[in-house]
Amino acid sequence: MKNTFSLDDMACFQAYRLHHAFGRYYQVVFAGTGLTYAKYVVLKALGEHGEMSLSDLSARLGVEPNTLSPLVKKMANYGVVERLRDPEDERRIVLRLASRGVTALREADAIIASGFRSLDLGEEEVAETIRRISSLRSAVERAANNDENVDLGKSS
């Protein structure tokens, strides 16, 4: 990779722009549902994994528990998520989808499937893109966890 490159040649900048594009996209497709992308991924994670602690959910979503906690409380007040005491450890809160959450997730999945069909991307193209993004994310996470690979102060 060359030492000088334009902003548009940077994977991180393209990921940043994609993140914002998805934010705008989900704002449009979820309009009128009361859902946001953040609420959707909480529903999706709980739908895939069943009961989860807040710390397990935050690890799965890659956010801090103190960031997620207010959102989960709002979702519980709305009736889509249940917050239960763990019978084995009363200090621990376990989260799961309420029946209203199961319905909301099913409807959101249908909205997303319909919306993605309008993007004119083939299933294999989407699957390959997801694989590549996931691979890049994993490599960046490994590099970030390895101090000797991250040195912005030295020039080559």
UniProtKB/TrEMBL annotation:
Family annotation (Pfam families): MarR
Cited PROSITE patterns: HTH_MARR_2
SMART domains documented for this protein: HTH_MARR
Main location per the UniProt record: cytoplasm
Domain (HTH marR-type) ranges: 1-145
InterPro entries: HTH_MarR-typ, MarR/SlyA-like, WH-like_DNA-bd_sf, WH_DNA-bd_sf
Compartments in which it is found: Cytoplasm
Name recorded for this polypeptide: MarR family winged helix-turn-helix transcriptional regulator
Organism encoding this protein: Plastorhodobacter daqingensis
